[in-house]
Specification:
Blueprint: E1 5-10, H1 13-20, H2 28-41, E2 46-51, H3 58-78
Parallel strand pairs: 1-2
């Protein structure tokens, strides 16, 4: 991977604090995602994550919802035989 520094801005204070290690991840399924995220984060030389309130980040919220809608429509049209999903639930 050529990227060495990453800055993340998120509108979920809970997730930002979980990634920073300030809050525990209680749900077993979410713990799997958290472990994967931490593993990926360790691959960067520098990583920073910041909480940005949603009202100050409306464009990113629109884009994220659009991406989730696209993913949802493509996964429902590709195969309905899969009972387990590797993507987190839509918020």
């Amino acid at each position: 991977m050529g990227i060495r520094k990453v800055r993340v801005e998120g509108d979920s204070n809970l997730i930002v604090r979980q990634i920073k290690g300030e809050y525990r991840v209680k749900d077993a399924i979410l713990q799997q995602y958290h472990r994967r995220a931490v593993t990926l984060i360790r691959q960067f030389d520098e990583f920073a994550i910041y909480h940005i309130p949603r009202r100050q980040n409306s464009r990113a919220d629109v884009l994220a919802n659009h991406a989730m809608d696209l993913q949802s429509s493509s996964s429902s049209s590709s195969s309905s035989s899969s009972s387990a999903s590797s993507t987190p639930p839509k918020r």
